[in-house]
Amino acid sequence: MSCYALKVEPNTPLWEYRDCANLPNDDVQADMYLAASEILQDHGYEHYEISNFARPGLRSRHNLKYWTGGEYLGFGPCAASDFAGKRFTIEPDLRAYVEGIAHHGSVLSECETIPPRERAPGNTSCSRSRIVTGLDAQEYERSYLLPFLRRCSSCSALCRARPRRAERLPLVPDPPAAGSSRTASSSRCRMHRKNPPHWPRSGNAL
């Protein structure tokens, strides 16, 4: 089960009605997110990724490929792949795709080689921090031949790295100051130190 907040984009029909659609603000969405997490976990769902839940043993293997940096192949027009150190996309035009297959020609519209060291700092670190298993320091250094990052540059928060494991904490808005009302503009991301229900407690192997 996936739980994502609705984002109203410009140049869409809903954008024109955003002011009268009674859409929840950032604070209400945060409360809804935490409530959904607690309710689903109380009913036997594991909160295994920031926005995804599953019964034990039924996590999405498809999505985990993306989040863990695994290889995958896509087939058909406009399909994307990440395989053998290359990222490539198939031609989106159906006719060009069929003709390419029939004449044993190229059907790729994009293809680039991405060295492991270029993958690690951005895609791998960010995507692995989304899942409950986190990012393994030993695996990181072995795969990318880079020292494990112990500082979260996007939040300027020091990660308390355990042996071979980095602590994963979900990002949520700061609580309001005493006597003040919190608004979306005054909220900022921080490392939320309170353990969500049923997530591994500090000191446990992640």
Describe this structure in words.
There is one protein chain. The chain has helices at residues 26-42, 61-67, 94-102, 116-128, 137-144; strands at 46-49, 52-54, 80-83, 86-90, 108-113, 151-152, 157-158, 171-173, 189-191. The chain has five helices and nine strands; from the N terminus they run αββαββαβααββββ. 7% of the residues are buried. The two termini are 22 Å apart. The strands form four sheets. Strands 3-4-5 form a three-stranded antiparallel β-sheet, with no helix packed on it. Strands 1-2 form a two-stranded antiparallel ribbon. The chain has a two-stranded antiparallel ribbon with strand order 6-7. By secondary structure, the protein is an alpha+beta fold. Helix content is 26%, strand content 16%.
Question: What is the compact description of this entry?
Answer:
Helices cover 26% and strands 16% of the residues.
